[in-house]
TrEMBL record, chains A, B:
Natural source organism: Talaromyces proteolyticus
Gene3D superfamilies: Nucleoside Triphosphate Pyrophosphohydrolase
Protein known as: Thiamine pyrophosphokinase-related protein
Pfam families: DUF4743 (PF15916), NUDIX (PF00293)
Listed InterPro entries: DUF4743 (IPR031804), NUDIX_hydrolase-like_dom_sf (IPR015797), NUDIX_hydrolase_dom (IPR000086)
SUPFAM superfamilies: Nudix (SSF55811)
Domain Nudix hydrolase: from-to ranges: 137-283
Gene Ontology molecular function, alphabetical: 8-oxo-dGDP phosphatase activity
Amino acid sequence: MAKTLLDLVKECDSFPYFEDNAEYYLSHLKNYHAFKVNGCDAVLGYLPNTIVEKFHWIENDWQVDATSRTVTLMAAPGATPKARTEIMSRLLAEAVRRQTFEVLNGWRHEMYPIYGPGGEFLLEMERSASPLFGITTYGVHMTGYVEDEQGIKFWVARRSKTKQTFPNMLDNTAAGGMSTGEHPYACAIREAAEEASIPESVFAERAKSTGVVTYFYIRDARAGGETGLLQPEVEYIYDVQLDASHVIKPCDSEVEDFRLWTLDEVKESLKRGEWKPNCATVMIDFFIRHGILTAENEKDYMEIVARIHRRLPFPTATYN
Amino acid sequence: MAKTLLDLVKECDSFPYFEDNAEYYLSHLKNYHAFKVNGCDAVLGYLPNTIVEKFHWIENDWQVDATSRTVTLMAAPGATPKARTEIMSRLLAEAVRRQTFEVLNGWRHEMYPIYGPGGEFLLEMERSASPLFGITTYGVHMTGYVEDEQGIKFWVARRSKTKQTFPNMLDNTAAGGMSTGEHPYACAIREAAEEASIPESVFAERAKSTGVVTYFYIRDARAGGETGLLQPEVEYIYDVQLDASHVIKPCDSEVEDFRLWTLDEVKESLKRGEWKPNCATVMIDFFIRHGILTAENEKDYMEIVARIHRRLPFPTATYN
């Protein structure tokens, strides 16, 4: 059966809302432990209770409180990010040694940042482990498109069949996660070159920052590894209007092929559920900003707009 | 002191969030009665308790439950919108006769719709009374702009000094509320003509639907009448790129004057707090979509984007 656009958004923004059913929301929260660092009040992420049970928590490094359902990283208050990161790394190294978690088989050797209130950098952790702690992750997504009298066309990527996550699904023109220290624009210009062979000069001239898409994802089987892990995400969005003569080519093995799709082809492939869920939301956001989806032609218009700009219940990054 | 853009957004999106402080949010909710209609489970709005006390509730028409803090319009389940509307109108007529509420001095003779789950039209009520019940109201806002090698300029309206609400403040090029039966595009094309003398043919060619801005406003003194009333709002947004030769002129007495403002002039006037709050959020949304505000130059970027696309805790309209 064809999926509606709201179905696609819900696959991506799957964490419940307090306002929809307070009782259900509060009981759902009991499935998780809050992740905190010593000396900072903010909740930085959520670990499923089943994950908390499996970790071998190192004494003095960690405090696990089953009553308040809290996991606290016990570096001294005011410790350096480096000191906190070492504690996290010790824990994860032990989990790798014991082969505790499937998601860690996809170790990326990439460090993701964790921010406290006011955007304070608290620590960093290995990317593949981030969903175990349910921390907010940051990335960039860009849509390369061509527009002429015949209409609009989109450069759509198909993910490699051998990719660990969401193999063979459709993807935005380029996208990528932001490691510690990276800023959105710098990440975008790098990913455009690496994934879609878009020269820096072309990106600098043609790309426009057009907002941010946020959602709170509960990982399903397609994400690979354990299901039910949380992944609150922030995706900085760029539109890249290209000349008709500009041909996008894969640059690394992550993309199977690139093809210029018509608007109808994109719409149909969305309905068939062929897009990686968060890439579908990026296309939907493009459609809304460009007047392709309107209140008059999409019955779930408002719900879609609100859900792809979800206010995440965690401190988030600032870059200036 | 200069206001930040987030300050401006917070003036408009002033209702608290559960996630920021669950205890405060739940205790804040105790200041209100939920508005419901008989036979429908959904909360349609919130009335401050002080307003509930002042109304002369007509027996059999209304059920006021102080324990569950609920005000229910008691038309039979499955009643027609007309039957429900008559009950509401009787109540409001009595309030006008008794001069109970200041906001009703601004009686507009315009009916605003109230929707239930799935966008079902339940009833309508006089526009000026809508904040007494805290129902979601709908409108359109459009930004007329000119772009050339020298940059971007905006057609900014200054509200009439004698306007009841937000007199003398800066406003978008055109904007207006949507009465029962009106759809966003039809409302926008009408307001463009009425308020900014933009011919229908120019609007049809130049305007683009670019999204929706939503926020949950607690009315302050500048809105006129009682303060503390709730006003959850949905504003459908249009960008209208005009030729440099197109001059916008006021068409009715609501606008003092129109002038083409540079980007810097708009930014400075925002900081000085000269804009009607919700019109400020519409400009901010434009800045984000057009790459003027970015994650790199605005520290509150994410919080701003999420708050001006707030998911309202009420059923909302659909138009198809």
